[in-house]
Amino acid sequence: MSRALPTLLAAAAIVAFMACLPLWGDDPIIAVGINLLAWVALSASWLVFSGLTGYISLGHAVFYGIGAM
Hints:
Layout (H helix, E strand, L loop, with lengths): L3 H21 L2 H25 L7 H10 L1
């Protein structure tokens, strides 16, 4: 349990930083933060659907690519 504490604290610090970003950040900084969160969500979904199951799904890449246009 004590080994998970530093990871939990780091995650909480990152969430707190991202939550405070709109209060003192400029528009480009907020755009980079949102883009970063989008890539994190894409990576997490790729891990769940492809990494853990071994299934190769290219639908996520196509969906994300179409949304980027």
